[in-house]
Design goal:
Elements lengths: L4 H4 L11 E5 L4 H11 L9 E5 L6 H11 L8 E4 L4 H9 L10 E6 L23 E6 L4 H18 L12 E5 L17 E4 L1 H4 L4 H10 L18 H10 L1 H13 L10 E3 L15 H4 L16
Parallel strand pairs: 1-2, 1-6, 2-3, 6-7
Antiparallel strand pairs: 4-5, 4-8
This protein binds iron/sulfur cluster (SF4).
The site of iron/sulfur cluster has 12 residues, from helix 5.
Amino acid sequence: MAVSLASRLAPAPADVPVRLRVLSLGAGVQSTTLALMATHGEVGPMPDCAIFADTGWEPRAVYRHLAWLMAPGVLSFPVHVVSSGNIRDDLPAGAQGQRRALIPAFTRTIVPVGDKRPVLDEDPVVGLSRPAGDRVSIGMIRRQCTADYKLVPIRRKLRELVGLAGRRSPKRPVVEQWIGVSLDESLRMKPSAEDWQVNRWPLVERRMTRRDCLLWLARHGYPEPPKSACIGCPFHSDAAWRRLRDGDPDAWADAVAVDRAIRTGFRGIRGEVYLHRSAVPLDEADLTTDADHGQLDLWPNECEGLCGV
Ligand code: SF4
């Protein structure tokens, strides 16, 4: 359930009497700004800690930035790193029928003549040989990765930190989680599904956009954080893919290799699977400017606000 615009822009909750105040750290621009603003005393009360959920497939620049954030004297509170597996290794394994890692990848399927099913997209670029007259449908796989690789390990750590054992949970919030969604991405705000946890979005409370975050960091002499997201995240815009290809050739080669390895698809998923939204092999995708294609920003689909911030 999304949060209504009115409640999204409501004033900050007054001191919620919780046992733990925690910042969800993605190590991107927004959550880094939030963590440093808290350290400067510009957002309060001071969080007890931050939690970084490691999918195992962030670019090296993100891990370097995280190491800096965790260095003594940078933040006023500790950072816990949690994980529930390595998405990079789970993807090829999923394509071999083992553990499934459902990322929002794109599928290309042939819809035979006479099949009246609606297709999401008809694309003249045919990556598969198909009988003349058949249609090509491009679809998107349901996203499960944020829950599996971020929500679950964060939730486990939160319960450990406040001493919630087993399935029993208090019916009132004992944890306040800060999420680094900025005003320009406020559609990604989503209330907690747990009675014992309440979510808070301090950047939205302050009407701060991603650009405002960059300005705040520059004003305080901090480096610009890298974009935090899995190396092969299918939400990447063409600009993001280009940055990866041109700026981090090893990560690009890895994304191309994983893209190739998942082609056969996952159990229960029809068609061939691709990381790029045009559903062609990543190293053959047309990565000219976003504006050329009027590309939709897919990040609002990651509605928990735990990736890419
Ligand atoms: S960055 Fe993308 S692929 Fe990685 S967990 Fe988030 S939505 Fe999934």
